[in-house]
Amino acid sequence: MTTAFDPIDLSGTQLTNRIAMAPMTRSRAFGPGNSPTDSTVEYYAQRASAGLIITEGTQPSVVGQGYPDTPGLHSTEQIVAWRKVTDAVHAKGGKIFAQIMHAGRIGHPVLLPEGLVPVSASAVAAPGQLFTHDGPKDFIAPRELTSDEVRETIADFAAAARNAIEAGFDGVELHGANGYLIHQFLAPNSNLRTDEWGGSGEARIRFAVEVTRAVAAEIGAERTAIRISPGNPYNGVSEPDPEPVYTALVKQLEPIGLAYLHLIENNRELTVALRKLFSGTLVLNVATEGFTGADELVLIEDGTADLLSFGALFLANPDLPARLKAGGPYNTPDPASFFGGDDKGYIDYPALEN
């Protein structure tokens, strides 16, 4: 029987166990040009016993930034700073993928250079507010990307992936979940386009597929992954009937030969259906009432998933794999430190710490 503590070959990347650290935004890129600092190095090195670390969302371009003090992968200084992180993780025997996240409409002009505004599939504002150094700000209507700009954005993802490999990452995970840009193209309430990038479900998946193909062509499919969250309403997206769209999406992704598919679960029935369509490695962020914990490890044993990703519990327990194997004890995560009260690893935004 396969267990969470068995090794796994991730398309050539050898993992020591099947416990992944979920990507969580930290907003601590205080270095020059939104680059990681020594505290980032320490943070990830402390958690190198994970089978796989997936970093915080890292913007592929200046306009892709969605929160204060988040890191990028679009400049030389960012590449150099990330290299310190990857070297530290590798020195402890860990493996680390960079999550590339374009926030799209989830952002605000105060975060961007003068003259830039958030962009998205369509000019539809997200509900709610964003925390900034100037206090809470209402989300604004983003500028709709032209078809040429969509292509340029795809190229930005590919360039960021190339930079990630130069920075020493073992691969990249594309953030296609939680209401950010790729998800904004997938969802019918945030993508109102009628051109080749929107309209039908088949057209709405095109951006996700083209980004994935471009990145795979740039760095190799074996170092490329994508995260999706079918039916997840986070950041104001609405997908009342996600199954047809995500079935079509996974069918398009399947032949690429990705390192893994990272699924944020909303419905177990859909999880099982998508698992059957994807022959590669499935990383699952389990739908639970509270924090994902040891009780969910059975999902690896019964074949529902190949790896499980843990968010909040990994923040409170840097040596989580050892604690899971020993049956505890566990430090209890503090939900008060999470922006929006999240406990699923969608985003850890420690505004009070900074």
**Which runs of at least 5 residues are low in confidence (pLDDT < 50)?**
339-354
Helical content (DSSP H or I, runs of 4+): 25-40%
Mean pLDDT: 93
Taken from the alpha-carbon principal axes, the silhouette is globular
**Strand segment count:** 14
Largest sheet: 8 strands, parallel, barrel
Strand content: 15-25%
Sheet with most strands: strand arrangement:
3-4-5-10-11-12-13-14
Keywords:
354 residues, two-stranded antiparallel sheet, globular, alpha/beta, 8-stranded parallel barrel
How would you portray this structure in words?
- With 354 residues, the protein is α/β, with parallel strands linked by helices.
- It is globular.
- The strands form four sheets. The protein has an eight-stranded parallel barrel with strand order 3-4-5-10-11-12-13-14. A two-stranded antiparallel sheet has the order 1-2.
- It has helices spanning 38-46, 76-91, 147-166, 181-186, 201-204, 206-219, 242-253, 268-277, 298-301, 312-316, 320-326; strands spanning 8-10, 13-15, 19-21, 52-58, 96-100, 119-120, 129-132, 135-138, 143-144, 171-176, 224-228, 260-264, 282-285, 307-310.
- The chain is built from eleven helices and 14 strands.
- Strand 4 (52-58), helix 2 (76-91) and strand 5 (96-100) form a beta-alpha-beta unit.
